[in-house]
Amino acid sequence: MSSLNSRDSFVIEREVKPLDFLSAGETASDFKETLKSLGIPADICRKTSIVAYEAEMNAVIHGGGGIIAMELEGDRITIVAKDQGPGIENVSLAMQEGYSTAPDFVREMGFGAGMGLPNIKKYSDELDIETKPGEGTTLRIVIFLKDEGGVE
Amino acid sequence: MPHGIDISGESCRGCVNCIKACPTEAMRVIRGKLKIIEERCISCGECLRICRHRAISLKETEWDSVVGKRPTLLVTDPALCTQFSWPPDPSILQDILRDMGFDPIFKETALAFDLAALAQARVIEHDSSREFPMISTYCPSVVRLIQIRFPELIPNLSPVESPLETCIDIWRAHHNRYDIPSTLAVPCPARIAMVKKPLGREASSVDHVVSTARVAREILSRNYTPAKPGGALVPNSRWVSWAASGGEARHVRMFETRPLRTLAVSGMRNVIGILQDIELRRLKGVDYIEARMCDMGCIGGIANAESSFLSQLKIENSGFSTDISKKETSVIEDMFNAGIWKMQEPIRPIEQMPLGRDMARAMEKLSELQSVYAELPHLDCGTCGRPTCRVMAEDIVRGEASLDDCIFRLREKMGNLSKEMNVLSKRLVHTMTPEENE
């Protein structure tokens, strides 16, 4: 874990290893505990945790690992998830609930149900996907600290 | 002082075994003595299990002050029925307990457990305002864990009160006697905590608590032999199955009108795991979760005398009767409609102290925490009296500990100091004998 902090913003960065299902969820719970210790309301902590978990799983399953960063600044939490995976061929298809390109062995473990991106969309306020086949994917996700516009 | 357990300052040697066993990082050893941070303690009893110096004990009522003072209503946790060589039939135990000078209220207990199970099923099926999966509130330690570590899951908690409370209310209302004290036999410190700090009600209906081990010891030392039950007053014994993992879930399903999906989870790690899964919304389609902090359920509680495996066997062998007469059902239905199963007060989160007064301050402290943490050895040895280096860093930032409390940091400092002294001592010799070189 590395961090870059100044007075007004706070960044935590975590590396996610490819196909490392054993430590899946650690980044999410680390982010959540950090937000909690800052006194951030429980529902925001939970949304961040869900979003970070799904991003983490995407990097674990498809992305060949990657970096997930959480930045806390002003009125928002920004999560940036960057991987060097194959990229997403059809983003609108990937946004559909239940659509999954996860390999069978991943599905057999109970992951890859095609809820990753839809859940990220559902529990965040802004989602921006930057992807190119063969060049990886970068997600930029924003959750506002004031609970407005959140889906719940 | 936490609810449910006592610390003996005399017996505590200041070893740090317990602080490392604590799932909520509630324990510290400060100046050689154990301290518990009350707002983090969930009374799970893990520290009791691990302490070899008997410095931690259950906060139970003195035996002599509860026994033989009739009338004393006695409610037993289902786990008590499994502590003996005979089958876990409350009718057998009833006569023995009467003989000892208690007034067991097994009839009301059986009724209250039926009522709780039915209420649970009804709430799941009809109350659409709830968050699912609904989580059982039967284990007080699980509820407290949620209040402290998973406050976002409070809307998932069941509104059904513990039948161990309700049964006393039922007896008192039925006999219109509110002046008779009640004693509860408990298998764990969490049940004691439930009495001292009630869940969902202002005051517990229980007045005294004794451990199942204590009651079992008294019974065994008096050489009671189980006779054929005198009066068959206990309508059923399915409530006894709540003592083992899965018993409650099964009882709830007895009253389902559509197939309910229930899970039974026991053991601290498993409970924390399932709560994390619920939090991440990974348990779609599950209606109800029976969660118990102790492995195997209440029979695994620290205050039992019998092996939890034998207890489990006895419960399995005694079967689970779903027989219920029309009349009994209508009594329970009436009680359900009267709402006496319901918690009167909502369960609220137990606020944890943030690092700073406001977010800007907290963020500053968090940065500080990270740089302090980087200075620590990351061995989580516990010698500083904190369970992990991370907790140590937090305590330092909060001003409750000093970097010198870390034995590795201290050693480093001493090493540097001795190097410095070495250099200094050579220099002294040189200045004191300036002419020798000439």
Provide the fold topology.
The complex is a heterodimer of chains A (152) and B (438).
Chain A: E1 2-5, E2 9-16, H1 26-37, H2 42-61, E3 66-73, E4 76-83, H3 91-94, H4 104-108, H5 116-123, E5 126-131, E6 137-144
Antiparallel strand pairs in A: 1-2, 2-3, 3-4, 4-6, 5-6
Helix pairs in contact in A: 1-2, 2-5
Chain B: E1 5-7, H1 17-21, E2 27-30, E3 33-36, H2 46-50, E4 56-58, E5 73-76, H3 90-100, E6 103-104, H4 106-126, E7 134-135, H5 140-149, H6 163-175, E8 182-186, H7 189-196, E9 208-211, H8 212-221, H9 247-254, E10 262-266, H10 268-279, E11 288-292, H11 308-318, H12 326-338, H13 359-375, H14 389-397, H15 407-432
Parallel strand pairs in B: 5-6, 5-8, 7-11, 8-9, 10-11
Antiparallel strand pairs in B: 1-4, 2-3
Helix pairs in contact in B: 4-6, 4-9, 4-12, 13-14
Gyration radius from CA atoms of chain A, angstroms: 15 Å
First-to-last CA distance of chain B: 72 Å
Structural class of chain B: alpha/beta
Q: What proportion of the residues of chain A is helical, as a percent range?
A: 25-40%
Q: Quick one: which chains have the greatest interface? A: A-B, 23 and 21 residues
Helix/strand order of chain B, N-terminal first: EHEEHEEHEHEHHEHEHHEHEHHHHH
Q: Which runs of chain A of at least 5 residues are low in confidence (pLDDT < 50)?
A: none
| Mean pLDDT over the residues of chain B | 92
Large-scale geometry of chain B: elongated
Describe this structure in words.
The complex is a heterodimer of chains A (152) and B (438). By secondary structure, chain A is an alpha+beta fold. In chain A, 32% of the residues lie in helices and 28% in strands. Chain A has five helices and six strands. In chain A, β3 and β4 form a beta hairpin. In chain A, α1 runs antiparallel to α2. Chain A is globular, with a radius of gyration of 15 Å. Chain A starts with a strand and ends in an 8-residue tail after the last strand. Chain B is an alpha/beta fold. Chain B folds into three domains: 5-58, Alpha-Beta Plaits (2-Layer Sandwich), CATH 3.30.70; 63-338, no CATH class; 359-431, Orthogonal Bundle (3-methyladenine DNA Glycosylase II, Chain A, domain 3), CATH 1.10.15.40. Chain B has helices at residues 17-21, 46-50, 90-100, 106-126, 140-149, 163-175, 189-196, 212-221, 247-254, 268-279, 308-318, 326-338, 359-375, 389-397, 407-432, and strands at 5-7, 27-30, 33-36, 56-58, 73-76, 103-104, 134-135, 182-186, 208-211, 262-266, 288-292. In chain B, strands 6-5-8-9 form a four-stranded parallel β-sheet. In chain B, β2 and β3 (33-36) form a beta hairpin. Chain B is elongated, with a radius of gyration of 27 Å. Chain B starts with a strand and ends in a 6-residue tail after the last helix. The A-B interface holds A 3, 5, 7-8, 10, 25, 28-29, 34, 36-40, 42-43, 45-46, 49-50, 53, 72, 119 and B 151-152, 276, 279-281, 349, 352, 354-356, 358-360, 362-364, 366-367, 370, 394.
